[in-house]
Every structure is written in C-alpha cells, then in structure tokens.
Task: inverse folding
C-alpha cells in the first residue's frame, strides 16, 4: 500500500488537468483527468511492449502456449487498473506472470515503475529481486535468437532504467509534498500571528479605555450624584454642575475616539510618556525619513480649522506606518505622502510607494528588513475605531498604496 498519506489540497481548476489524484486527495479515490489520460497511455504502452516481446519469442511457443501467453498477459494488463491502490500486489502478480508470459512483460514493466513510486523501501527491494529473477529465468524459457548473457544484461539495464525513473518521479512528488506542507504550516503560523496581533491590539485598547475613561466617568458620576442629593441647590450651582457634566462628557467622548492610539507603557523609571503626535508633526516625520536616505515627496494641506487631536494622531500613525513599510519592503523606491481635509470627505491620508525601476529595483532586490505584517492590522483597527476606512495594496501600475479616510469630527 502507499505509505504516503496525502492531505487535502485546494487547487485551481486548470491544475486538476495536470496533477495526479494522489496530489489532489480526491474524495473516494476518484481519478483526476490526468489519471485517466495516464491510465490509457500506460495501458497502451504495456500492451505495445508486451506485443513486441511476444513477437520476438513467438517461434519459441508451441501447442497451446501462445493462447496461454495471451491470456496471462491480458490478466496482467487488466490488473494495472488497481496499481495505485495495491502497488506491491500488482507488481508481484505481473512479475510472476511475466516469468512464463511474454505479453505480460509490458504490464510488468509498468507495474514495477508504479511500485518504485508508491511502495516502501523494503518492499521495493523484494520487487527488485523478483525482477532480477525474471531477467534470469525468462531467457531460459524463451531463448530466442540472442545468447543468454546479452539478454540478461539487457534485461537488467532495462529494469534499472524503469526503477530509476520511478524513484526520480517519487523524489519529485516528495519534494512537492514537502513544499506544500511547509507552505500550509507557514500559512497556519501566519494566521496565528494575525490572531495574536488582533488580540493584543484589543487588549491594549481595553487597557487604554480603562485608564483614559475611568477618570472622566468618575467625574460624571460625582457631579451627577451631587445634583441628585442636592435638589435644593441654587440655579447657579445647578448650571455650573451641568456645565461641568457637559464638558466632562464631551471630553470623555473625545477620549473614546482616541482609544485608537497604541497603549504605551511608562518608562522603567516611572517617567510619563511624551505627548502623542499630531498632524503638525508629520513634516518632521517626513524630514526624518529624508535624512535617512528616502526619496519622499509630501503634500500636506493645512486645515482651515483646528483638528481634533484624535484625527491628527491617526493621520500621523498612517503616515508613519506607510513610511516604515516603504523602508522595509521597497528600499530605494520613491514615496509620495499626501494629506488633505475637507468638510465633505473628512481627512484623506495617502502614502504611495512607487514601483522601483532601474537602480531602485536593484536596491529593492537586496536584503530587506523582516516584517510580520501585523503593523497594518493594528493600523486598520485604529482607523476603524476612528470611524474611518483603511485600504492598502498595489494599484494597476504596481505602486503600493496605503489610503486612510477619516471622517470629520466636530
């Protein structure tokens, strides 16, 4: 039996025309289109080889032996239908029949080739012994016109070619199988990394929501409780408390929109983190990239009215991630950064990494910084929590476009 257990593989429809069923793992062992073509060709080849041997040894047949030879050869040829499911058994049957049947030599050659692909090493050694026995015995039964020793040497040479070809095909399939298993393992690891990145981002957002909003909500509760337990308060005091509640609620909503910021731990010495970046700091970010050797063109429109901190911070992070990805995956390529704002569309941030050509392409072909692809995952969640949309990928010209649309927040 075949010792290689195939795993299901999803392949395009056209590839099913050229792949064997063992690589497709068809349910119920159904033959692929390629298998049907190969079966017919091998069946014709087996009968052709057997017919040639039968003609060469026809003068050595007497009485009923020609009819017996043809019957045994036909049985061997029909058994090839089950060669995939029972490779060793079919090879043994054809090998034994080919000892006395010239016509069975063709099916035996096909069966031994199939066994070299599908059987274990120990089984294959036994089958090689059977093939050598056939090579030694067949010329004694059907001596033909040639001397015994040349027939034996030619038989050994032919069998070596058949077995060697089968082992070569087996090595190719093992290589494809190992590459496929490696690709599936890498895909599984990548999916795990993506899930871990998403979970980590959710945990950071949850912690930031607690740290940022707990203070605001506690103030709301305090002032609302004061109004509840002081129904006799003066109109001025009630108006003042209501104003504080309204301002605190507005700030809490603003902070809620700002939870897209990545939670950062404080320094080891307990010093607080510096203020979060804003839209005004994007030119500095671009200049830092230029100083590092990147070719960056920027077009940053100054909004007519001050932007909320959350919008500016999100725009900064989009540009930062786009420049970082360009440095990692397209070193030497030109990068365009564009930031625009409008009341209708909100803020549009776009980072385009131009497809490298010439010298830049040679630079890109060099060593690249490793990346797990989790930066865009976290960035997408940032933009989504800000009510926006993030798109990324190559456009029709081959340039990689990172585009974020963030709605206007009053």
Result:
């Amino acid at each position: 039996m075949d010792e290689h257990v195939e795993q299901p593989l999803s392949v395009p429809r056209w590839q099913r025309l050229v792949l064997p069923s063992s690589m497709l793992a068809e349910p119920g062992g159904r033959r692929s289109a390629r298998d049907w073509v190969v079966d017919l060709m091998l069946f014709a080849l087996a009968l052709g080889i057997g017919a040639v041997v039968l003609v060469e040894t026809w003068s050595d047949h007497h009485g009923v032996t020609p009819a017996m030879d043809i019957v045994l050869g036909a049985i061997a040829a029909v058994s090839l239908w089950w060669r995939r499911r029972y490779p060793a058994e079919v090879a043994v049957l054809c090998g034994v029949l080919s000892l006395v049947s010239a016509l069975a030599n063709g099916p035996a050659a096909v069966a031994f080739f199939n066994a070299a692909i599908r059987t274990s090493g120990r089984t294959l050694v036994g089958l090689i012994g059977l093939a050598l026995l056939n090579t030694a015995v067949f010329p004694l039964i059907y001596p033909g016109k040639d001397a015994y020793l040349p027939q034996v040497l030619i038989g050994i040479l032919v069998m070596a070619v058949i077995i060697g070809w089968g082992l070569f095909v087996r090595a190719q399939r093992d290589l494809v199988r190992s590459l496929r298993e490696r690709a599936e393992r890498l895909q599984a690891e990548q999916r795990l990394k993506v899930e871990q990145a998403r979970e980590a981002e959710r945990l950071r957002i949850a912690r930031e929501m607690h740290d940022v909003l707990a203070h605001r909500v506690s103030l709301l509760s305090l002032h609302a409780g004061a109004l509840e337990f002081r129904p006799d308060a003066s109109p001025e005091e009630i108006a003042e408390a209501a104003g504080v509640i309204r301002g605190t609620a507005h700030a809490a909503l603003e902070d809620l929109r700002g939870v897209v910021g990545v939670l950062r731990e404080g320094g080891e010495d307990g010093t607080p983190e510096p203020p979060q970046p804003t839209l005004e700091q994007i030119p500095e970010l671009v200049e830092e990239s230029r100083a590092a050797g990147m070719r960056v063109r920027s077009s940053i429109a100054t909004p007519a009215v001050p932007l909320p901190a959350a919008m500016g911070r999100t725009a900064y992070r989009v540009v930062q991630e786009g420049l970082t990805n360009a440095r990692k995956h397209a070193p030497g390529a030109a990068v365009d950064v564009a930031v625009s704002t409008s009341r209708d569309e909100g803020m549009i941030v776009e980072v385009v990494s131009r497809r490298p050509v010439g010298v830049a392409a040679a630079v890109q072909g060099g060593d690249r910084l490793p990346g797990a692809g989790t930066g865009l995952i976290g960035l997408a969640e940032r933009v989504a929590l800000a009510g926006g949309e993030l798109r990324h990928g190559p456009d029709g010209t081959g340039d990689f476009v990172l585009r974020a649309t963030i709605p206007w927040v009053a």
User: Anything to note?
Assistant: Residues 1-9, 260-274, 359-370 have pLDDT under 50 and may be disordered.
